[in-house]
Specification:
heterodimer, A: Rossmann fold, eight-stranded mixed sheet, B: alpha+beta, two-stranded antiparallel sheet, 2 helices, 4 strands
Chain lengths: 271, 67
């Protein structure tokens, strides 16, 4: 039977503003399926975002939503979680929002291991502001501010998150639509900081400058570069050149921040 | 030709004509008509749900036909 997405979407909000072929819609569908799978109470779920194309996502969902300043989604989400530790907090944002403008908030939220799920939609560019290069634009690719090719090396968001101390890190792509909801659901169930990096496509500002003739060319590229973690262990370094690993990259159980903080409060009160 | 396994409901107001559903349909049921998708070969549908799963615009619903 057709999946009922519309019960999770605010009435009258569709069609959404994303460009034709933008993968953010696919990620939003995955998030709705994941929230249904975890049976999250929408009244007790906060979806927080910053600024950008990906950060428009919470506006469509019929949950408690918070649309904040550019890059500050993780900081606001930390505030929500600290004041209401029982609330399910999900953060949505793009690569520029999360790792450039909000880079510090991102790594410190990871370090604290606070219980939230951060879905970071990496479309390799700043889409909404006009296609400027982001820390995730591949070296040599063109953006509106790098018309002769981007000289910078890239951020590997998942490795950054693992290095910063997140206890659940997973990566998938907009092509692998069924994997998106499984990983988000796993992230929601995980006690601690869960980072779900979704490689996405931006046909309007990234694709047309980088010789992708159509939306489906970008989707097929996502399919081609993705290698599941289990398959990668049997591949040589040469075969893995230019590929990205998908699936659960890192998982660890460590003390969660709000619980630790509650202990500090008890201690301060002389318990 | 066997009977269709599902009925496709397309919301033309939501469709932006990105071509994802047309490209990934394994039996080529869908076709692009002036930047809006249309069902060209309804009898070929095998109810694999790929179009509904991949449509970024919430424009396609696949209603399986129970036999």
């Amino acid at each position: 039977m057709a999946y009922d997405y519309e019960k999770s979407i605010r009435p009258g909000k569709l069609p959404h503003i994303w460009c034709p072929g933008c993968g953010h819609g696919i990620v939003m569908k995955g998030l709705i399926r994941a929230m249904d799978a975890c049976e999250l109470d929408r009244k007790n779920t906060a979806i927080v975002s910053g600024i950008g194309c990906a950060s428009r996502l919470p506006g469509y969902l019929d949950c408690c939503t918070l649309h904040t300043a550019h890059g500050r989604a993780a900081a606001f989400a930390t505030g929500v979680k600290m004041s209401k530790p029982d609330m399910n907090v999900i953060v949505c944002g793009g690569d520029g929002d999360g790792t450039a403008i909000g880079g510090n908030h991102f790594i410190h939220a990871c370090r604290r291991n606070i219980d939230m799920t951060y879905i970071i939609m990496n479309n390799f560019i700043y889409g909404m502001t006009g296609g400027q290069f982001s820390p995730c634009t591949p070296t040599g690719d063109k953006a509106s501010t790098t018309p002769y090719g981007n000289p910078d090396p890239i951020f590997d968001i998942s490795k950054l998150a693992i290095g910063a101390g997140a206890t659940f890190v997973a990566r998938t792509t907009a092509f692998h639509a069924t994997q998106i909801d499984k990983l988000i659901a796993e992230g929601i169930k995980h006690k601690g900081m869960a980072i779900i990096e979704v490689l996405d496509d931006c046909p309007t500002t990234y694709g047309r400058r980088n010789k992708f003739r159509s939306v489906t060319d970008m989707m097929k590229r996502l399919k081609d570069i993705a290698v599941p973690v289990a398959a990668a262990s049997k591949m040589t370094a040469e075969q893995l050149e230019g590929k990205v690993l998908t699936g659960v990259l890192y998982k660890e159980e460590l003390p969660e921040y709000t619980a630790q903080y509650a202990d500090v409060i008890k201690k301060a009160q002389g318990a | 030709m066997s009977s269709p396994k599902a009925k496709l409901e397309i919301n033309e107001r939501y469709c932006k004509g990105c071509n994802i559903c047309v490209e990934f349909c394994p039996t080529k049921v869908l076709e692009m008509d002036l930047f809006v998708v249309k069902v060209a070969k309804p009898e070929a549908c095998i109810a694999c749900m790929q179009c509904e799963l991949r449509c970024p615009d919430f424009a396609i619903k696949v209603h399986k036909i129970e036999e």
